[in-house]
């Protein structure tokens, strides 16, 4: 005769835990630092800000580099967040897969568009 001291806990998901938590914090920090750098550049411009001044900010190679890094961080940040939302709240596996694929394609498209806009300046 065996004694059952409770049911075994069923854990679902892919066990991303700490990695996702850390990724959200690191990408959030990168986006915050980019915002501060961009805000500092905008505040240093004298007079009204037009297209030439705005394009001048992003024409510098170092600014393009950190902008690309920020775009990648933003896409990854959004992916981790949306994946977690879908894993927590969308129970039908088929619907969850469709939503995840849609979000992934959307984010890759937005990233590509952002890179195209940035390098066309």
UniProtKB/TrEMBL annotation:
Residues involved in a ubiquinone binding: 89
CDD domains on file: SQR_TypeC_SdhD
Sequence positions that bind heme: 77
Chief location of this protein within or outside the cell: membrane
Organism: Comamonas piscis
Textual note on the cofactor: The heme is bound between the two transmembrane subunits.
Pathway given in the UniProt record: Carbohydrate metabolism; tricarboxylic acid cycle
Annotated protein name in UniProt: Succinate dehydrogenase hydrophobic membrane anchor subunit
Lineage: Bacteria, Pseudomonadati, Pseudomonadota, Betaproteobacteria, Burkholderiales
Domain of life: Bacteria
Entry cofactors: heme
Database matches in Gene3D superfamilies: Fumarate reductase/succinate dehydrogenase, transmembrane subunit
